[in-house]
Amino acid sequence: MAMDVLGDRTGLFGFQRVPFISRVTEYGHSANLLGYKKSLNVAFWNIQDEEYYVGLLSGLLLTPVSKFGHPLDVTMTNSNPILHPARLYSLFSDYDSSHPFLEPPLFYEDWTVESSEILIACDREFQDVVKAVGIKEGIIPTLLEYYESKDADSLAAKLRSITAFKGIYAPTVRQEDGTFAPDYDNRYFSEDIPYGLMLIRYMAQLMAINTPAIDRIIHWYEGLSGKRLLDGDLIARNDDTASIKCLNREVIQRLIDSHHG
């Protein structure tokens, strides 16, 4: 997106994952920062003296920073773009407005084995795309590896136990009768699916990789949002059928070519 808007001669950098989790305490005044990482990974594009900026970022964030070789190493991520949509689907795909939530469900502390199964299936498809793009093994670990788990049960237990994830509620809105319904305007829906998960789906189509688990979530979101995400040729630059107007095929292809080169 940045290359498309600013031009591919612009100096850019991006982290593989956020340096911490932040939550507003009092809007405009204070916030809590949780879940600090032991180390961070960053990639650069069109920047001279990368080592200087590695040192600068390490100092600013008080965290060791390592440099990755290419922007695709951090653009392709199985964090929020897979983690959030998989959980949303598990939580809300069977939601019935006649049976609303009495309390907002906890996003992580109530994590289920079913949520893990969906997440693992999406991650397998994601890893197929990663391999096809040519990203080196180990740059983007599987979610089972990242969360030190071996299967859906152990992954669910791990996600329920992470201290930084405590107290994070699923996106819901309070209704007039005091019950709660899914908040389909929340960023977990409006950002992580059409811009996060769809980027992975877009790359999969470029690489001719089938993604049935990811498609199931996207089709469900299409029904909620009224947007046509999978209708027509995603690769075509056609604003009438493709919802991802920010994705430029030429820019994406140039990134892939430069990675292979």
Descriptive account of the structure:
The protein is built from eleven helices and seven strands. Residues 237-244 have low confidence and may be disordered. The longest helix is centred in the middle third of the chain and has 21 residues, at 113-133. A three-stranded mixed sheet has the order 1-4-5. A two-stranded antiparallel ribbon has the order 2-3. It has helices at 2-6, 50-61, 72-75, 80-92, 113-133, 143-146, 152-161, 187-190, 192-206, 212-225, 249-260, and strands spanning 12-15, 21-26, 30-34, 40-45, 65-67, 172-174, 180-182. Helix 4 packs antiparallel against helix 5 (113-133), helix 4 (80-92) packs across helix 9 and helix 9 crosses helix 10. Helices cover 44% and strands 11% of the residues. By secondary structure, it is an alpha+beta fold. The protein has two domains: 1-69, no CATH class; 71-260, N-(1-d-carboxylethyl)-l-norvaline Dehydrogenase, domain 2 (Orthogonal Bundle), CATH 1.10.1040.10.
Largest sheet: 3 strands, mixed
CATH topology annotation of the largest domain: N-(1-d-carboxylethyl)-l-norvaline Dehydrogenase, domain 2
Question: What distance lies between the first and last C-alpha atoms, to the nearest angstrom?
Answer: 21 Å
What is the CATH class designation of the largest domain? Mainly Alpha
Strand fraction: 5-15%
Supply the helix-strand structural class. Answer: alpha+beta
**What is the ordering of alpha helices and beta strands?**
HEEEEHEHHHHHEEHHHH
Strand segment tally? 7
Protein topology:
Blueprint: H1 2-6, E1 12-15, E2 21-26, E3 30-34, E4 40-45, H2 50-61, E5 65-67, H3 72-75, H4 80-92, H5 113-133, H6 143-146, H7 152-161, E6 172-174, E7 180-182, H8 187-190, H9 192-206, H10 212-225, H11 249-260
